[in-house]
Amino acid sequence: MVPALTAVDVSWSVADKQILSGVSFNLMPGKMLGLIGPNGAGKSSLLRCLYRYIHPDAGNICLYGTDIFSRPLKMFAREVAVVLQEIPPQADVSVWQLVSTGLTPYKRLFERDSAEDNSAIAAALVQVGLGDKADAALQHLSGGEKQRALIARAIVQKPKLLLLDEPTNHLDIRYQIQILELVKSLGVTVIASIHDLNLASAMCDELLLLNQGEVVAVGAVENVLTEQRLSEVFGVCCEIIRHPQTAKPLIHYFYGYSPIMAGSNGVAQRQMGNAYAHK
Ligand SMILES: Nc1ncnc2c1ncn2[C@@H]1O[C@H](COP(=O)(O)OP(=O)(O)OP(=O)(O)O)[C@@H](O)[C@H]1O
């Protein structure tokens, strides 16, 4: 089976600063990949390369075996949906109008939405819990509601690949879980940057851990999330157990620990004084 997405040795620098270095990974169709890593690791930059906002200096990115930069723009706009943290410039439109723009790549100039289109928009709004906000002005929605409206727009686009930059950023815990479960249930290939490592562990099939623009680890969640890596990359002390429901890695963080006091195994050790005695 051809991977939905293949990145080979993707590198990008700006103003002599290397932002991404030799990033490579494969993602099979229907899988959900979580991009994790500390602030400034390069997660957004990598996503920008994947949706063609940035042209990497080196390397290749292929969607179903074809270089993304060789695909006609309109085809690419149908195939790849992007949900960013920023509110789009059309902030004075209604929620319905925003979601309907997800159909734009399928339309000819001035072509109106069909009854089928309207049903798809209404269904997407219900899916994200905004069924009663269709006529509301986008600018009057809360941050989380705006985020869900953007996801509804991506749903009507019916993409092959859905890219999300911190989709859970403005959401309360209920919607963090609900939106990621919804995204997962769409059956499309998903790549999402996620800061909450436990959420990423629970929801993603695979993880890619970036640090300083380089891939530290990529693959099955349980292979990527190790106590030692989290200590080395994030500078935190933790223990990883199995989630009682999913059996996936569940991280318990400890407080008052310092990565400076790394032990012989490299895992951050308890700092003298203020840590509560756990281990
Ligand atoms: N256009 C740009 N010009 C200069 N520096 C940039 C540009 N884009 C990104 N960077 C730098 O690249 C590095 C990676 O940024 P990026 O936003 O990709 O990281 P991130 O992992 O998404 O961070 P965060 O978790 O904080 O959102 C940062 O140091 C950032 O300042």
UniProtKB/TrEMBL annotation:
Record keywords: ATP-binding, Nucleotide-binding
Name used for this protein in its record: ABC transporter ATP-binding protein
InterPro entries: AAA+_ATPase, ABC_transporter-like_ATP-bd, ABC_transporter-like_CS, P-loop_NTPase
Domain ABC transporter: 5-237
ATP-binding as UniProt keyword: yes
SUPFAM superfamilies reported in the protein's UniProt record: P-loop containing nucleoside triphosphate hydrolases (SSF52540)
GO molecular function, one term: ATP binding
Keyword Transport listed: no
Originating organism: Shewanella yunxiaonensis
